Inverse folding.
């Protein structure tokens, strides 16, 4: 490993089918006023809401709610949540849901005591909080984003067609605790399940496809990817397979709690492309990533052949005998494409609602980031997006 780094993760995890009981352990650590944050109401149908509210009442908490957090939380929803949390004088924000709800809670956390417009400060100027932040806890019901154990928060501005993620530098923004019960994921529709699976896999890829040094992080990533592939096939065949779903939940957390990025550069251009597509289409996040991955990785493969070759052999078991490095690397991407089709992922942006006349705008909204094998220019982004159609 050639890089210099620090690593600190303050989130305490409770994992397993009895993990919600530990909410009783965490709640006494915080003040009386709790804001319960959740999405479209599925947690009321499956009983999770009632179970959480009972524990809050048993702990004598004064509860306010922010309901209706959408899959791509908007800046207007953020403003609404800030006002609710301020009015309630919140001591704790408790997110119950998937990654979007966890992201949203962290965005509210850094905004409640901020005197400036949080969109301008955090998502356009990418500044760090200089105000007191609120503690966040998560009860996870959908896997994919890893938001339960990192400091990232993605917010969408529908008016400007921007979907921007800010990974805050201070580990205090990470959730103080996260409760991971794989049973909560068993009721997800197949579409959401496989979108989350690809989100997990892509997080690992974007930290893997960079650098050429012998890096321990890459060995960890390969193991995680193989685990995701194996568990995804089991879950795709039988969505009620608890063991498969538990492995996916655990892999999702480790895919983006920053561990596998230590000591190396990272390449987040698939996310930048996918998020810009999402800003125009409001499509499910994991599907936007799946729809842009192949043209992007084919484009950068010539600049990182050795890592793509390693990916093919170590992750997809491609036989390298009698083949050029380029052939081996190409077979690895082909194997990944076949797996994605096997899961039923959407593989182009047209099916997500993107049209050719949106391409220029999507390109304008795509943040260009360094770290990968090739730093794209705008013309390359436009050409990649046209291939994604």
């Amino acid at each position: 490993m050639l890089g210099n780094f620090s690593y600190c993760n303050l989130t305490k995890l409770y994992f397993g089918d009895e993990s919600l009981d530990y909410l009783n352990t965490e709640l006494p650590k915080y003040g009386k006023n709790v804001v319960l944050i959740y999405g479209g109401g599925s947690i009321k149908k499956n009983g999770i809401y009632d179970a959480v509210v009972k524990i809050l009442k048993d702990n004598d908490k004064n509860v306010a709610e922010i309901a209706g957090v959408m899959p791509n939380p908007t800046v207007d929803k953020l403003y609404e949540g800030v006002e609710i949390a301020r009015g309630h004088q919140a001591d704790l924000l408790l997110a119950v849901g998937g990654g979007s709800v966890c992201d949203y809670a962290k965005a509210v956390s850094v905004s409640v005591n901020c005197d400036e417009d949080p969109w301008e400060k955090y998502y356009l100027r990418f500044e760090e909080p200089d105000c007191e932040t609120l503690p966040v806890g998560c009860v996870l019901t959908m896997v994919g984003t890893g938001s339960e154990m990192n400091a990232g928060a993605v917010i969408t501005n529908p008016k400007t067609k921007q979907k921007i993620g800010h990974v805050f530098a201070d580990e205090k923004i990470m959730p103080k605790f996260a409760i991971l019960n794989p049973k909560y994921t068993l009721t997800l529709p197949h579409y959401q399940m496989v979108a989350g699976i690809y989100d997990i896999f892509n997080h690992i890829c974007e930290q893997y496809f960079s650098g050429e040094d012998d890096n321990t992080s890459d060995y960890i990533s390969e193991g995680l990817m193989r685990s995701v592939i194996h568990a995804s096939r089991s879950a795709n065949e039988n969505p009620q397979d608890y063991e498969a779903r538990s492995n996916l939940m655990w892999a999702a957390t480790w895919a983006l709690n920053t561990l596998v990025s230590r000591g190396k550069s990272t390449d987040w251009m698939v996310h930048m492309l996918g998020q810009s597509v999402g800003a125009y289409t409001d499509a499910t996040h994991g599907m936007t990533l799946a729809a842009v991955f192949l043209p992007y990785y084919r484009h950068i493969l010539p600049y990182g052949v050795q890592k793509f070759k390693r990916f093919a052999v170590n992750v997809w078991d491609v036989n390298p005998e009698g083949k050029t490095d380029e052939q081996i690397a190409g077979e690895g991407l082909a194997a990944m494409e076949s797996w994605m089709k096997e899961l039923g992922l959407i593989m182009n942006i047209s099916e997500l609602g993107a049209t050719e006349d949106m391409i220029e705008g999507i390109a304008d909204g795509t943040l260009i980031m360094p770290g990968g094998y090739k730093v794209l220019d705008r013309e390359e982004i436009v050409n990649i997006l046209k291939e994604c159609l």
